[in-house]
Amino acid sequence: MKRQRYTLKGFLLLALFVSGLTAGRAAAQDPQQDSAKLPYTLAEYNAYQSANAETKPDARLKLLDDFVAKYPNSSLMQYVYGLYYPTYSQLKNYPKAMDYADKLIALADKAEAQRRLEAILARVQLFPFVYNAKAADAHDQLVKERDGALLGVKILQDLKKAKDSTQTDEQFAEGKKPAIALFESAAGFADQQLKDYAPAAEAYKAALAVKADDSLSWYRLGVSYLEMKPPQSLDGFWALAKAISLKIQNDSQIKDYLRKQILAYEQPGCDSLVDAQLNELLQLAAGAKDRPATYIIPSADDLNKIRQSSNILTVLTDLKAGGDKAKMTWLAICGAEFPEVVGKVLEVKPATDAVELRLYTGATPEEIEAATTSNLDVKVVGQPGASRLQKGDGVRFSGTLVSYDPDPAFMIHWDKAKINAEDIPADKAAPGKHTPHKVAPKKPAGH
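Structure (tokenized):
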């Protein structure tokens, strides 16, 4: 939980922010000005003003305690509580500061809306210093934080512009937005800790609707989506990508977390393919608020369906087609092992510890026989005898798909291939015309 230090000055700035929504800040009025209309005495007023004027926090607390002891039912209590919580914050006694913010909030309609808003705002800022996840009442702490933040939203939404305000209606509504975003984010955080992920996500979305550049809310929204049952994975990925694009603190760690989440969701044939998807997602998120309707990341079930229906010929067709079809197929079959692939040798390249074969495979013996260019690049390991193969020989092999080159120079690359031993010549062919060894494909083999 990210924490910040708040002082008396910090609380005053926050209060001024909220009070700026109204034309003027209401304050205790001197009884000598119009004693007939005021519900408090001159003695109460003077006691309050003495505490308000005191600059030393310890001395101010003593004056406030004296006031409460003498006038426990004073109508000035909202102002007294309004001095208590910033004073305790100044002394770094955050639990007591939040207690007095809560006392002011609990006055309900007996306190001015502005005063309650200031207290709720203080409570939201104090909560990270006070909340203890291991405490016996941790659940109750979170519920109270959530309910307080949502009360702040409601008060702000119901707050009317002062009659003497010089603001337009649009300016007044716009002025509410930062505080609404703060309260919604606080409610979302509390719900998230309560594992109420759906309302947490709604709260974060409401916060982002008024403050779309809040990277922390984007991050927490993404986590909430991913923790739902069932998870809203694509929305979660997008929200995390937005947080990263907005330069959230520790963005490299969040990027690693996002990559792991995509990998677990998708389970592609080759883990390295996720890197390209992640980069594409981050680029999109940097340029748009909402995820494009056409953008998807296939799930593990999507890829398994492709694997179950694939054979070497369907793979060739899908990869040559390009576009989204090729991307989906390659995500599914990259790293897969195919047995008994049939091809015609077009080139043999012996090396120190391997033999590289250029082959062509197709749907029929006639197509294979007529081929003059290769579409398979096969690296044979541990079979030096494969170097005895010659152009025109037919072979059967098993191997692992590692990469492919799209059209116009289409080629599928294989590694750790093994040639069927029956297809390897016993020794070097005698000088003269070579008679190619033929192998006809029985049928396309699955993997």
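Confidence is low (pLDDT under 50) at residues 1-16, 22-26. The two ends are 48 Å apart (CA to CA).
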